[in-house]
Amino acid sequence: MRKNVVIVGAGPVGLVSACLLVDEGIPVTIVESCADLPRDLRASTFHPPTLDMLGRFNVVPRMVEQGLVCPTWQFRDRTDGVVATFELDRLKDETAHPYRLQCEQWRLGEMLLERLKGNPLADIRFGMKATEVTQTADEIALVAVDEKGASETFTGAFCIGADGIGSVARKTIGAAFDGITIPELYLTLSTTYDFSEAMPDISNIAYLSDPEEWFVLIRTVNVWRALFPVNAELTDEHVTSPQLAEKLLQGAAKRDVPYEVLHRTAYRVHERVASTYVSGRLAIAGDAAHVNNPLGGMGLNGGIHDAYNLASTLVEIFRGAPLDLLGRYERQRRKVALDVVQQTTLRNRAILNTRDPAARAAYYDELRRTVANPVTHKDYLMRTSMISSLRDVAKIA
Ligand SMILES: Cc1cc2nc3c(=O)[nH]c(=O)nc-3n(C[C@H](O)[C@H](O)[C@H](O)COP(=O)(O)OP(=O)(O)OC[C@H]3O[C@@H](n4cnc5c(N)ncnc54)[C@H](O)[C@@H]3O)c2cc1C
After folding, report:
1. How many A from CA of 9 to the centre of ligand 1?
2. Which of 66, 136, 226, 239 is deepest in the core (most CB within 10 A)?
3. Which domains does the chain carry?
4. What are phi and psi of 386, to 5 degrees?
5. Ligand 1 atom closest to 131 (CA)
6. Position with higher pLDDT, 68 vs 41
7. Are 103 and 219 in contact (CB under 8 A)?
8. Residue 338: DSSP 8-state
């Protein structure tokens, strides 16, 4: 059998897969359509087990140095304040990183790329867009074209499709991508204003529930990021206008001076899981396989957990395990996407946007009871930090 892997996509999932494989002596080719790693604002939350996984690449101390360690996170009522504060230190016997780390995902990308660039087993091909993957019993062939239309074929023992939501690899597998599109757009604004001036008891990560307009506040080293749902029928221009940003932020915390806003990004959010993750020697991971709303920070983390599982499975196969071990990857990780990630993120959205006062009160009561009891408090953290899902599916053969 050939002993190399072709990876489509140099997002966090492709890069984590590549690092794990080269560390095990397996050559990789990464084919990425962009000319360089993008630095756009996307996910910034890293959960404890993800940091445990990244520990082997020696990037976590730098991520901590460049990021913000968050020992707590909160559900708040927009009007009445704190409903429940979750304390991640309660996980100290379960993880080497009992906190959430806020560190923009592009920082991890740059660290992993730098690591790969120094490794002769890694061939990184920027500016090449994958168009087609074919396979025989023994190998895969990936066709990619550069900006000038020149095509090149990359062959390997396996192909990992880590090519994001519009995945060519997923389409090649012929997987359905059923689910829903969230009716509202999500608008992310980053501002230099320190929200702890207006809300002194706020955690660095806070979900603010409200029947009319919920929002999320997340602190990073230099800025606070605010996430608002906005009407999808507004024009693109209006959604990302400075006027709307100012109106929303003034509504979140009234100030006499205008907000300084550094970024405004609006995006559509879907909840979808591919009907199959594997076809022969081709497997998909990360956003190529599942997408969800960002409430709970599970998209990026779940994708990195996929990468870790998939790359480790390929290492086992290279060492003699049967090819159908890839089925275990699909059984384990697809179950997490369906039963944990989608369920948790949809429930978080429901807690934030429920209009019925009785249902809202019931959610709040349940959250208050959960944090008041040390056993349920820890259990909630085990689930929302994604430690439980990793341990539960490890039992699936
Ligand atoms: C605006 C925005 C905000 C977000 N905010 C959050 C958040 O707050 N919290 C959260 O948890 N998640 C958030 N997400 C989701 C999170 O960023 C993703 O879950 C994460 O990036 C998934 O990583 P990935 O490597 O699977 O895919 P991606 O990061 O999408 O990487 C895929 C890579 O594949 C490349 N590619 C695509 N097609 C091809 C092709 N045909 N050939 C070659 N290369 C190709 C792309 O250029 C890209 O570099 C956000 C996403 C967006 C778009």
Report:
1. 9
2. 226
3. 5-69+103-178+271-350 (3.50.50.60)
4. 70, 15
5. 41
6. 68
7. no
8. I
- Quote the CA–CA distance of 120 and 43 in Å, as a whole number: 30
Among 227, 287, 298, say which to mutate for ligand 1: greatest number of ligand atoms within 8 Å of CB. 287
Ligand 1: centre distance to CA 72 (Å)? 26
Mean pLDDT of 165-179: 96
> How many beta carbons lie within 10 A of that of residue 254, not counting itself?
8
Residues 6+ apart with CB under 8 A from 282: 133, 135, 140, 158, 159, 161, 169, 172, 173
Which is nearest to 45 in space by CA: 274, 384, 388? Answer: 384
| pLDDT average, residue stretch 169-173 | 96
Other beta carbons within 10 angstroms of residue 65's beta carbon come to: 9
φ, ψ dihedrals at 89, nearest 5°: -60, -20
- CB contact set of 32 (below 8 Å; sequence gap of 6+): 9, 10, 14, 124, 125, 126, 127, 128
Report the pLDDT averaged over residues 236-262: 96
Q: Which amino acid is at 60?
A: V
Q: How far is the CA of 291 from the centre of ligand 1 (A)?
A: 10
Rounded to 5 degrees, what are φ and ψ at 314? Answer: -65, -40
At residue 39, the pLDDT reads: 84
Q: What are phi and psi of 279, to 5 degrees?
A: -140, 110
